[in-house]
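name: query_chain
kind: protein
chains: 1
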Amino acid sequence: MAEFDLDLFVIGGGSGGVRAGRLAAAMGKRVGVAEEYRFGGTCVVRGCVPKKLFVYASQFTEHFEDATGYGWRLGERHFDWPTLVANKDREIARLEGLYRTNLEKAGALTIEGRAVFVDPHTVEVAGKRFTAEKILIATGARPNPHEALPGREHCITSNEAFHLAELPRSIAIEGGGYIAVEFANIFHGLGVETTLIYRGKEILSRFDGDMRRGLHEAMEAKGIRIICQDIIQRVEKRADGTLEATLKSGGMETYDQIMLAIGRVPNTNGLGLDAAGVETGVRGEILVDEYSRTNVGHIWAIGDVTDRVQLTPVAIHEAMCFLETAFKDNPTKVDHADIATAVFSQPEVGTVGLSEEAAAERFEELEIYRASFRPMRHTLAGRHERTIMKLVVDAASRRVVGVHVLGPDAGEMAQLLGISIKAGVTKDFFDSTMAVHPTAAEELVTMYQPTYRVRNGERI
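structure:
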């Protein structure tokens, strides 16, 4: 008789947990995957996928406007929020079913309920106990509840934004990260009077400065109000149902809805980690080594719960490295360098590698190649929004250490650019590559002369 019920027990049925569970089961391992909410996790159910669907919906406002410059005549327009929500829910239900089905087809046991450690090798779900030789924690993260904010109960997070009964006439979004920025563009595109409130000097901290400033200007030109270096200190619900926000600066603002998008915290509460002896950090994140192994040798953790890089593709990659390490006798470290990513704002931001600011701290001298132009698609439409493209190059090695794009389809460009940057290509490879004309992306291979240089952190 086997010593354990299962070879692997996965806590969390999100993208990382499902990938690990499905492929381990396909290898012939006895696998159980427990999920307390819906299979697919944050990304599929109330994150990347529904958000991108909402982004598409919100872009039609500008598409309709731009069409007239190309000779189209459009009739009366009407947007129906309940239709969007219902169609989104139908697609999410379909995807959730696929995640569960694929697990079961691979031979994994799917278990509904919250898994809690009883001891280092035992978990309990819905009153039933399972023992496992190896355990993988992939419980993700949740929106920061901002419990210290008076009136917090009147606000929503990104979770609730996908299920609003009706579209508000006005909304304030507190935060300056990609979630806050994306939702600000979504709501504005759907006709909501939108205000973004951020405590920092500029939105999208840690992104390249040109991208941050360029997007800020573009959003304000569209009509999105952005308040920096301020925070909401109190929220009160008025008799008419509107929300009154008191700002640290002393101002008072009234909105139909207030959304808090001030970061995400690891989902480790109530997992019984003490019973398993698993160590956590100051934010509750599970501490792991380069192989995603915790301080308990047979317990691993991947994805947002480790608070390393909170991106779905990262969790999936960490799952693949875990499988190589735990089941294929091929210890594989997770490489978090040069991760391509995108902000699905309007315009989009696509980026891979180091920002100019980060690169200036690492390299003695940089060459910066920068182009700013109005893309062809905007000319007949009469839209003045500009695209910005930027290459950050280490002057000594000529290696391209960062690429940043602000403009249409920037996310698609970032995915392909990520391969080049990961391969360590030099600026000479960009220079020797023929352009595809006419495209916006051709600017990336036609910037031959540096716009400026940076030496010891100073532009020269």
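note: Residues 6-143+265-327 form a domain with the FAD/NAD(P)-binding domain fold (CATH 3.50.50.60).
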